[in-house]
Amino acid sequence: MRIPYDVVRDGLSAINHAAEEMALAQQQVSSGQRIMRAGDDPLGTQQAVLERAGLGSTDAYLSSRDAAASRLASADSVLASFGDKLASVISTGLSARGSSITPAARAAASAEVRGLRDSLLADINSSFGGVPLFGGTQSNIAAYASVNGAWTYQGTSDTAKIEVEHGRLVAITFDGQALAQGTDTADVFTLLDQLANAIDIGDDAAMAAAVAGAERALDRTFRMQGQLGADERGLDEASIRLSVMRQAGEARRSKIEDTNMAEAITRLTKAETAYRAALGSVSLAEKTSLLDYLR
Amino acid sequence: MSGLFESLSTASNSLLAQRMGLDVVGQNIANINTPGYSRRSLVLAEVPPTDSLSAGGGVSVVEVRALRDALVEARLRRAQGGTAYDSALAEELGSVEASIGMPGASIDAELTRFFDAFAELAVDPTSAAARDEVVRQGSALSSAFRSIVDQVTNIRGDVDTSIRSSVDEVNRLAAEMANLNVEIAMNGNNVETIRDRQNTILSRLGELADVAVLARTDGGVDVTLSTGEPLVLGDTAYPLALSANGFTSIQAGGVDVTASLSGGRIGGLLHVRDTMIPGYLGQLDQMAFDIATTVNGMHASGFDAYGVAGGNFFAPPASVAQAAGNLSVDAALLADSGRLAASATGASGDNANARALAALRDGPIPSGGTRTPFDTWGQFAYGVGSDAANARSAASSHGDIVTQLQQLRAQVSGVSYDEEAAHMMRYQRAYEANARYFQTIVSTLDVLMDMVQ
Question: What is the mean pLDDT of chain A?
Fold first, then answer.
């Protein structure tokens, strides 16, 4: 059988093929990317899109978690202060009762109660980033204010919530009326006004009723703190779960998209050897022919 | 009985024949790198004796024959057509593949940033910066869709240009083939050089389009499209006509044959231009339409920063067609991000609508469908990548078949240095021997002449 050797058809195509393999391996090693175009691994590309989407979703949840955590910490601090002040109110109200209290002491106690009322008002009107924490979904007005001489809740009973992991919502604003009034007929500020007035005139029965209202407000504060603490713990747990999910997702993404260096370097070495062999075989095949023996 | 002068004539003819042998060797070696060249072989025949006492009249040159295998040539033409089809697909789909980008650097990344912006807005629905960011990311997503559509449309235009130039080449080759048919008919048997050119043209025509070749009795060939429309009949070429406007349509004899050209480079280019790219654009349009209508629907159910019911987020697409190429954020929203409907109740601090919009990233975006926007994009990227990989693989395997057929052709028609060197030695030695024989006869004649003196 005649086998004419064609340096272009046989030699150059072998060299080109080996060079292509080497270039691909080199590119993978230098870029660290296993997939350079969708056609390199179509299924891997599809999976990488989905893994990246999952990572994006996890990152968004982590970011929301951080935002929620800072708001909850701020609200927790406000509630702690609120509770302390209510405890002071109760203590002051209890100590102002009885016939042995002097008018000067009553005046001092009522002044203290009024001061605590103002301080509690400042607490419940606290804001985070300009948004009231206890105004529900109302953002552009203080939660409580005196309107025509009456304490009025200006917020909403709805609260703003954010999703901190799939299907888990956490409130980042709170219903101030649920804290200050609950199911009582009057809010805590009205009660404190009534308490201060009762201290002024020495009305023990009214003082007892106001102190009882303050105690219920303190209970509500503790319950809200408890709920908030549970949410904070939930956020910490969610953070751990999200971090683990992120690590696992990143590992899967890397496995799909990134070069396995050991494998790529081995392939590069192999491709380089094949390239040299192709060059060598072409030069060898071209080197010798019968023409060399003609004299 | 022959005389010494006849012996001189025999030696002279033989010298001529061996020299022609050397000429053929020279021609073969000279054309070893000429595309389409078929090696030549000298056919010699013994000159028979004129009577019973004659040894014979020496040698005569019968012909210089070109060695070809018509079957292999035809199979090679068909295989080259298949390779050209797949190569055209692979080249053009490679461009489409590049234009859709890689995971994390394309529409999927813009979608992530778009929904992230809504999630940030849900954290702080009163923030003007967060509102601006959502609008900005909406614009970036729109721009990404438009950019891909532009790139893919440009590729479609480039493919159309390639179709035009390929058809022009077919017409030029057909005209040349008609001329060769005339030359072959005029030159009778001395046509091997023309036949080499004929084969080269047929090979190139086979690469460009799916053609059928019919041999004529005068040595020429008729060439038709596989659907029967003539390209060359004898000395007449029938050029394909191209439409002047829009994407090229191809007419043969006044009949539109665009849809029936399914082979060769032109068939591959037409398939990319008329089937594959429109399919990709259609998928992009559907995706953009679904995203725009779903986001618009949810956005309209909320309330903006002024407590007014939400309008459109994206300029509402009139239809699925061209939805991706025209995707843009609604002009009113672009002018004032306060019109972004983050609230579900109208309360300024409510974030429920922003939260619902952010959650669309994990929800089925297409109306009535089950896929998230990322599923849809991933499926699209898979489709394009898979088509490109299949085309490359098919081009490679067809290329291997072509290489094998080229080797088969070379076994018959290729020039070998070793073989030509052997022939050169053979003709050289024969020439030397005949020259010596000629000298011997001349010496013998001298002896005879000396006897006469």
Answer: 91
Q: pLDDT at residue B51 above 90?
A: no
Distance CA A191, CA B70 (A): 110
CB atoms within 10 A of CB A214: 27
Please name the amino acid found at residue A158.
D
Beta carbons within 10 angstroms of residue B385's beta carbon: 25
Q: Is A137 on the interface with B (CB under 8 A)?
A: yes
pLDDT at A34 over 70: yes
With 0-12 / 13-18 / 19 or more C-beta atoms within 10 angstroms meaning exposed / middle / buried, residue B96 is buried
pLDDT in tens, B1-23: 468 888 888 899 999 999 999 99
- Per-residue confidence at A224, pLDDT binned at 50, 70, 90? very high
Q: How far apart are CA B210 and CA B212, in angstroms?
A: 7
Query: From the candidates A3, A46, A295, which should be mutated to test the interface with B, based on the most B CB atoms within 10 A?
Result: A46
Number of Cβ pairs < 8 A linking chain A and chain B: 190
The answer to whether the pTM exceeds 0.95 is no
Tell me the average pLDDT across B226-245.
Answer: 92
Phi-psi region of B343 (alpha: psi -120 to 50; beta: other; left: phi over 0): beta
- B218 — pLDDT class (breaks 50, 70, 90): confident
CB contact under 8 A, B348 and A139: yes
- From A167, which residue of chain B is nearest by alpha-carbon distance? B359
- Whether B347 sits inside 8 A of A139 (CB atoms) is yes
Those residues whose C-beta lies under 8 Å from the C-beta of residue A213, and which sit 6 or more positions away, are A184, A186, A188, A191
Mutate which of B382, B393, B404, B408 to disrupt the A interface (most A C-beta within 10 Å)?
B382
Q: Is residue A178 situated within a structural domain? A: yes
* Total domains, chain A: 1
pLDDT in tens, B263-312: 999 999 999 999 999 999 999 999 999 999 999 999 999 999 999 999 99
Helices B4-30 and B417-452 pack at an angle, to 10 degrees, of 160
Least confidently predicted of A119-123, B64-68, B114-118, B267-271: B64-68
Over range B28-43, report the average pLDDT. Answer: 91
Residue B330, helix vs strand vs coil: coil
Nearest-CB residue to A289 (from B123, B410, B417): B417
Rounded CA-CA distance B238/B175 in Å is: 8
The pLDDT, as a whole number, for residue A92 is 94
Report if residue A41 sits inside a domain: no
Instruction: Using an 8 Å CB-CB cutoff, list chain B residues near A35.
Output: 102-103
Q: What is the pLDDT of residue A18?
A: 87
Whose structure tokens read 């909406």? B138
Neighbours of B119 (CB within 10 A): 27
Chain A residues closer than 8 Å to B371 by CB: none
Q: B66: burial class by Cβ within 10 Å (0-12, 13-18, 19+)?
A: middle
Domain housing A103 = 51-251
Q: Which of B109, B385, B406 sits opposite A38 (nearest CB)?
A: B385
Q: A207 and A194 in contact (C-beta within 8 Å)? A: no
Contact A233/B at CB under 8 A: no
User: Torsion angle of alpha carbons B308, B314, B320, B323, nearest 10°?
Assistant: 160
Please check whether residue A77 is in contact with residue B413, taking contact to mean a CB–CB distance below 8 angstroms. no
B294 in Cβ contact with B112 (< 8 Å):
no
Task: Provide the 8-state DSSP code for A181.
Answer: T
| Closest chain B C-alpha to A19 CA, distance in angstroms | 15
- Is residue A278 situated within a structural domain? no
Residue A17 lies in a domain: no
Per-residue confidence (pLDDT) for residue A213, from 0 to 100: 95
Check pLDDT > 80 for residue A7: no
A167 touches chain B (CB under 8 A): no
Q: Do B374 and A49 touch (CB under 8 A)?
A: yes
Tell me if ipTM is over 0.90: no
Domain at A184, CATH number: 1.20.1330.10
